[in-house]
Specification:
With about 230 residues, this protein is α+β, with helices and mostly antiparallel strands. Helices cover about 35% and strands about 15% of the residues. The protein has helices at about 70-80, 85-145, 150-165, and strands at about 170, 185-190, 200-205, 210, 215-220, 220-225. The longest helix is centred in the middle third of the chain and has 58 residues, at about 85-145.
Protein backbone atom coordinates (compact mmCIF):
# COMPACT_ATOMS: atom_id res chain seq x y z
CA UNK A 1 0.00 0.00 0.00
CA UNK A 2 1.54 3.19 -1.15
CA UNK A 3 1.15 6.20 1.09
CA UNK A 4 0.45 9.45 -0.72
CA UNK A 5 1.70 12.72 0.60
CA UNK A 6 -1.18 15.13 0.82
CA UNK A 7 1.21 18.01 0.50
CA UNK A 8 2.44 16.86 -2.85
CA UNK A 9 -1.03 16.38 -4.29
CA UNK A 10 -2.75 19.48 -5.74
CA UNK A 11 -5.88 20.53 -3.99
CA UNK A 12 -8.79 21.02 -6.35
CA UNK A 13 -10.69 24.31 -5.95
CA UNK A 14 -14.45 24.26 -5.70
CA UNK A 15 -16.15 24.16 -9.06
CA UNK A 16 -18.57 26.96 -8.20
CA UNK A 17 -15.78 29.44 -7.45
CA UNK A 18 -14.72 31.20 -10.65
CA UNK A 19 -11.08 31.47 -11.38
CA UNK A 20 -9.67 34.91 -10.62
CA UNK A 21 -12.76 35.96 -8.67
CA UNK A 22 -10.68 38.43 -6.68
CA UNK A 23 -9.71 40.31 -9.88
CA UNK A 24 -12.94 40.18 -11.94
CA UNK A 25 -15.71 42.82 -11.84
CA UNK A 26 -19.26 41.90 -10.93
CA UNK A 27 -21.39 41.04 -13.88
CA UNK A 28 -25.03 41.91 -14.53
CA UNK A 29 -27.10 44.97 -15.59
CA UNK A 30 -25.85 48.37 -14.51
CA UNK A 31 -28.45 50.98 -13.45
CA UNK A 32 -27.61 54.70 -13.64
CA UNK A 33 -29.95 57.16 -11.94
CA UNK A 34 -30.07 60.22 -14.20
CA UNK A 35 -32.72 62.10 -12.30
CA UNK A 36 -31.64 65.70 -11.67
CA UNK A 37 -33.59 66.07 -8.42
CA UNK A 38 -33.07 63.80 -5.45
CA UNK A 39 -36.40 61.93 -4.96
CA UNK A 40 -35.95 62.08 -1.17
CA UNK A 41 -35.02 65.77 -0.64
CA UNK A 42 -35.96 67.43 -3.91
CA UNK A 43 -32.49 69.02 -4.11
CA UNK A 44 -30.39 69.23 -7.27
CA UNK A 45 -27.81 66.49 -7.23
CA UNK A 46 -24.14 67.41 -7.36
CA UNK A 47 -22.53 66.62 -10.71
CA UNK A 48 -25.88 65.83 -12.33
CA UNK A 49 -25.57 65.10 -16.03
CA UNK A 50 -21.86 64.33 -16.09
CA UNK A 51 -22.69 61.13 -17.89
CA UNK A 52 -25.77 62.37 -19.71
CA UNK A 53 -24.24 65.39 -21.43
CA UNK A 54 -25.83 68.02 -19.14
CA UNK A 55 -23.74 70.74 -17.44
CA UNK A 56 -22.66 70.04 -13.87
CA UNK A 57 -24.45 72.14 -11.27
CA UNK A 58 -23.24 73.03 -7.80
CA UNK A 59 -24.51 71.03 -4.89
CA UNK A 60 -27.29 72.53 -2.81
CA UNK A 61 -27.03 72.99 0.90
CA UNK A 62 -29.59 72.12 3.53
CA UNK A 63 -30.97 75.65 3.52
CA UNK A 64 -31.72 75.43 -0.22
CA UNK A 65 -33.69 72.24 -0.22
CA UNK A 66 -36.85 73.99 -1.45
CA UNK A 67 -37.26 73.18 -5.16
CA UNK A 68 -38.70 76.69 -5.78
CA UNK A 69 -35.31 78.32 -5.10
CA UNK A 70 -32.86 77.91 -8.00
CA UNK A 71 -29.12 78.20 -7.70
CA UNK A 72 -27.69 81.39 -9.07
CA UNK A 73 -25.75 79.67 -11.82
CA UNK A 74 -28.75 77.60 -12.79
CA UNK A 75 -30.94 80.73 -12.89
CA UNK A 76 -28.41 82.49 -15.09
CA UNK A 77 -28.37 79.56 -17.49
CA UNK A 78 -32.15 79.52 -17.59
CA UNK A 79 -32.20 83.28 -18.23
CA UNK A 80 -29.70 82.91 -21.04
CA UNK A 81 -31.58 80.03 -22.57
CA UNK A 82 -35.13 81.43 -22.32
CA UNK A 83 -36.62 83.14 -25.33
CA UNK A 84 -38.88 86.21 -25.07
CA UNK A 85 -42.49 85.23 -25.61
CA UNK A 86 -44.11 86.96 -28.62
CA UNK A 87 -46.99 88.16 -26.44
CA UNK A 88 -44.52 89.96 -24.15
CA UNK A 89 -42.96 91.80 -27.11
CA UNK A 90 -46.40 92.71 -28.46
CA UNK A 91 -47.51 94.04 -25.06
CA UNK A 92 -44.38 96.22 -24.80
CA UNK A 93 -44.94 97.62 -28.31
CA UNK A 94 -48.59 98.39 -27.58
CA UNK A 95 -47.64 100.09 -24.30
CA UNK A 96 -45.15 102.35 -26.09
CA UNK A 97 -47.73 103.20 -28.75
CA UNK A 98 -50.30 104.06 -26.08
CA UNK A 99 -47.86 106.30 -24.21
CA UNK A 100 -46.95 108.10 -27.44
CA UNK A 101 -50.62 108.63 -28.31
CA UNK A 102 -51.33 109.97 -24.83
CA UNK A 103 -48.44 112.46 -25.10
CA UNK A 104 -49.64 113.56 -28.55
CA UNK A 105 -53.18 114.02 -27.23
CA UNK A 106 -52.00 116.14 -24.28
CA UNK A 107 -49.94 118.36 -26.59
CA UNK A 108 -52.84 118.62 -29.02
CA UNK A 109 -55.25 119.62 -26.23
CA UNK A 110 -52.87 122.31 -24.96
CA UNK A 111 -52.45 123.68 -28.48
CA UNK A 112 -56.21 123.71 -29.09
CA UNK A 113 -56.88 125.50 -25.79
CA UNK A 114 -54.20 128.08 -26.55
CA UNK A 115 -55.51 128.65 -30.07
CA UNK A 116 -59.10 128.88 -28.80
CA UNK A 117 -58.14 131.62 -26.34
CA UNK A 118 -56.13 133.44 -28.99
CA UNK A 119 -59.01 133.39 -31.49
CA UNK A 120 -61.39 134.59 -28.79
CA UNK A 121 -59.12 137.51 -27.93
CA UNK A 122 -58.78 138.40 -31.62
CA UNK A 123 -62.55 138.36 -32.09
CA UNK A 124 -63.20 140.49 -29.00
CA UNK A 125 -60.42 142.88 -29.95
CA UNK A 126 -61.86 143.29 -33.43
CA UNK A 127 -65.28 144.17 -32.00
CA UNK A 128 -63.81 146.70 -29.55
CA UNK A 129 -61.79 148.34 -32.30
CA UNK A 130 -64.99 148.90 -34.28
CA UNK A 131 -66.64 150.39 -31.16
CA UNK A 132 -63.78 152.75 -30.30
CA UNK A 133 -65.40 155.87 -31.82
CA UNK A 134 -68.57 155.24 -29.79
CA UNK A 135 -66.56 154.59 -26.61
CA UNK A 136 -64.58 157.80 -27.12
CA UNK A 137 -67.78 159.84 -27.48
CA UNK A 138 -69.21 158.31 -24.30
CA UNK A 139 -65.98 159.03 -22.43
CA UNK A 140 -65.93 162.70 -23.57
CA UNK A 141 -69.62 163.13 -22.70
CA UNK A 142 -69.00 161.72 -19.22
CA UNK A 143 -65.99 164.04 -18.70
CA UNK A 144 -68.05 167.09 -19.65
CA UNK A 145 -71.03 166.02 -17.55
CA UNK A 146 -73.37 165.61 -20.49
CA UNK A 147 -74.56 162.17 -19.29
CA UNK A 148 -75.63 163.19 -15.80
CA UNK A 149 -79.39 163.03 -15.32
CA UNK A 150 -80.08 161.56 -18.76
CA UNK A 151 -81.45 158.08 -19.66
CA UNK A 152 -78.35 157.46 -21.72
CA UNK A 153 -76.21 157.40 -18.54
CA UNK A 154 -77.68 154.01 -17.56
CA UNK A 155 -76.99 152.67 -21.07
CA UNK A 156 -73.37 153.84 -20.85
CA UNK A 157 -72.95 152.20 -17.47
CA UNK A 158 -74.31 148.89 -18.81
CA UNK A 159 -71.92 149.07 -21.75
CA UNK A 160 -68.97 149.63 -19.41
CA UNK A 161 -70.11 146.70 -17.27
CA UNK A 162 -70.28 144.44 -20.34
CA UNK A 163 -66.77 145.41 -21.42
CA UNK A 164 -65.44 144.65 -17.95
CA UNK A 165 -67.23 141.28 -17.93
CA UNK A 166 -65.55 140.11 -21.13
CA UNK A 167 -62.15 141.27 -19.88
CA UNK A 168 -61.77 144.67 -21.60
CA UNK A 169 -60.08 147.27 -19.42
CA UNK A 170 -59.96 151.03 -19.95
CA UNK A 171 -56.72 152.60 -18.68
CA UNK A 172 -55.03 155.98 -18.56
CA UNK A 173 -55.24 158.48 -15.68
CA UNK A 174 -53.48 161.78 -14.99
CA UNK A 175 -50.50 161.19 -12.76
CA UNK A 176 -49.57 157.81 -14.25
CA UNK A 177 -45.89 157.35 -15.11
CA UNK A 178 -45.40 157.62 -18.84
CA UNK A 179 -44.77 154.23 -20.47
CA UNK A 180 -44.11 154.28 -24.23
CA UNK A 181 -45.35 150.70 -24.48
CA UNK A 182 -48.90 151.63 -23.46
CA UNK A 183 -48.97 155.41 -23.95
CA UNK A 184 -48.72 157.63 -26.98
CA UNK A 185 -47.56 161.18 -26.10
CA UNK A 186 -49.35 163.64 -28.37
CA UNK A 187 -48.26 166.74 -26.41
CA UNK A 188 -45.31 167.61 -24.21
CA UNK A 189 -46.21 170.54 -21.96
CA UNK A 190 -44.89 172.30 -18.91
CA UNK A 191 -46.89 171.61 -15.80
CA UNK A 192 -46.36 171.50 -12.08
CA UNK A 193 -46.05 167.93 -10.91
CA UNK A 194 -46.54 166.57 -7.46
CA UNK A 195 -43.53 166.87 -5.17
CA UNK A 196 -41.26 163.84 -5.40
CA UNK A 197 -42.42 162.89 -8.90
CA UNK A 198 -39.59 161.42 -10.97
CA UNK A 199 -39.59 160.97 -14.71
CA UNK A 200 -42.07 161.92 -17.39
CA UNK A 201 -45.66 161.85 -16.15
CA UNK A 202 -49.09 161.81 -17.77
CA UNK A 203 -50.88 165.09 -17.03
CA UNK A 204 -53.87 164.80 -19.38
CA UNK A 205 -55.63 161.86 -21.08
CA UNK A 206 -56.85 162.81 -24.54
CA UNK A 207 -58.12 159.34 -25.45
CA UNK A 208 -58.13 156.44 -22.98
CA UNK A 209 -56.45 153.20 -23.88
CA UNK A 210 -58.07 149.76 -24.01
CA UNK A 211 -56.52 146.37 -23.42
CA UNK A 212 -57.72 142.79 -23.25
CA UNK A 213 -55.56 140.88 -20.82
CA UNK A 214 -51.98 141.45 -21.96
CA UNK A 215 -53.04 142.49 -25.47
CA UNK A 216 -53.23 146.23 -26.13
CA UNK A 217 -56.21 147.11 -28.30
CA UNK A 218 -55.31 150.78 -28.43
CA UNK A 219 -52.65 152.74 -26.57
CA UNK A 220 -53.73 155.71 -24.46
CA UNK A 221 -53.14 159.08 -26.12
CA UNK A 222 -51.93 161.54 -23.52
CA UNK A 223 -50.18 164.81 -22.78
CA UNK A 224 -47.05 164.54 -20.64
CA UNK A 225 -44.79 166.78 -18.62
CA UNK A 226 -41.31 166.47 -17.14
CA UNK A 227 -40.51 167.29 -13.53
CA UNK A 228 -38.92 170.72 -13.02
CA UNK A 229 -35.26 170.74 -12.06
Amino acid sequence: MTDSNPVDQPVDKPLDEPVGAEESEPTGPRVTDKRRLDPQTGAVRHGFGSEGGQPDLPARGPADESPEVLDSEFAEEVARGDEVHPDTTLAADLTRDLQRLQAEYVNYKKRVDRDRQMHRDLAVGSVIESLLPVLDDIHLARQHGDLEGTPFAAIADKLDGTLTKIGVERYGQPGDPFDPNIHEALMHIEAELAEGTEGTTVVQVLQPGYRLGQRIIRVARVAVADPQT
